[in-house]
Amino acid sequence: MLVDKTRVIFHEGEDTQGINVMNINAYPAFVQVWVDTGDINNFTQSPDAPFVLIPPIFNLRADEVKSVKIIYDGKKLAADRESLFWINLYEVPAVKTGLTHQQYLLMSMKTQLKLIYRPKSLRDNVTAAGESVSCTVEDNAPLALVCRNPSGYFLSYNDISVSFRGHRYQATAEVDLMLPPFSTQRFGLKALPQASLGTGNNITFRLINDAGEREEISHALNR
C-alpha cells in the first residue's frame, strides 16, 4: 500500500483531515485501519486515541485509490506540547476463489505513520525547534550522545552524526532517532574513537520536517 503522506499534522481547531491509500500491488487486498499509541503488537483502535478513521475496513482492487477520513473527537490534549499517535494500515491479500483448499503462502503487512496533534501555543516551526537541540558526549565506554530537546515538538531524524577529521560517525537508537517534547535522550556512539573528543567536533542532524523532507542542521558539539 502507498499513502500520499508520511505523517499527518493535526493543528488545534481542526476537526477532520484525510489520507489517500493506493493499492500498488498487482492483486486486490483487504485493508484495516486504526489509530493507537504505537504498540506494534496492537491490531485494534486504542481507547486512548482521540482520532477515528472512516472507513475502518475496506477492500482495494489493484491500482485503486481510497480516501480515508481522520476525525478528531475533541478530547482535550496537552496545550504546551505535541501529542503523538500512530495511523496503522494492515493489509491482507485477497484469496482467489478455488484456492481455499490448496496450500499457499499468505503474507500480510502492517504500515504505520505518525499522527501528530499540535496545539496553538507552539508558534515556532519544526526547523526552529530542531535548532534549539543541544547535545553532549558521555565519555564513559562505550561513548554515548546525550541530546536535550527544550521544545514542545516531537523531533524525528533520518540521521544524527558526529564528525571528526572528515569522517562522520552515526548515532544509533534502539527504536528510532526521535526526541519527544522536553526530553533528554541517549544515543549510542560506539564507532566514534575515544581520542576524537575535544575541540573541533561538529554534530549534524538530518531533521524530518512536516512535509517529510530532510533538513540538515549542524553546529559545534558540546562536551
Automatic annotation (TrEMBL):
<comment type="similarity">
    <text>Belongs to the periplasmic pilus chaperone family.</text>
</comment>
<dbReference type="GO" id="GO:0030288">
    <property type="term" value="C:outer membrane-bounded periplasmic space"/>
</dbReference>
<protein>
    <submittedName>
        <fullName>Molecular chaperone</fullName>
    </submittedName>
</protein>
<dbReference type="Pfam" id="PF00345">
    <property type="entry name" value="PapD_N"/>
</dbReference>
<dbReference type="InterPro" id="IPR013783">
    <property type="entry name" value="Ig-like_fold"/>
</dbReference>
<dbReference type="InterPro" id="IPR016148">
    <property type="entry name" value="Pili_assmbl_chaperone_C"/>
</dbReference>
<dbReference type="InterPro" id="IPR008962">
    <property type="entry name" value="PapD-like_sf"/>
</dbReference>
<keyword id="KW-0143">Chaperone</keyword>
<feature type="domain" description="Pili assembly chaperone N-terminal">
    <location>
        <begin position="3"/>
        <end position="122"/>
    </location>
</feature>
<dbReference type="InterPro" id="IPR001829">
    <property type="entry name" value="Pili_assmbl_chaperone_bac"/>
</dbReference>
<dbReference type="InterPro" id="IPR050643">
    <property type="entry name" value="Periplasmic_pilus_chap"/>
</dbReference>
<dbReference type="InterPro" id="IPR016147">
    <property type="entry name" value="Pili_assmbl_chaperone_N"/>
</dbReference>
<dbReference type="InterPro" id="IPR036316">
    <property type="entry name" value="Pili_assmbl_chap_C_dom_sf"/>
</dbReference>
<dbReference type="Pfam" id="PF02753">
    <property type="entry name" value="PapD_C"/>
</dbReference>
<dbReference type="GO" id="GO:0071555">
    <property type="term" value="P:cell wall organization"/>
</dbReference>
<keyword id="KW-0574">Periplasm</keyword>
<feature type="domain" description="Pili assembly chaperone C-terminal">
    <location>
        <begin position="148"/>
        <end position="214"/>
    </location>
</feature>
<keyword id="KW-0732">Signal</keyword>
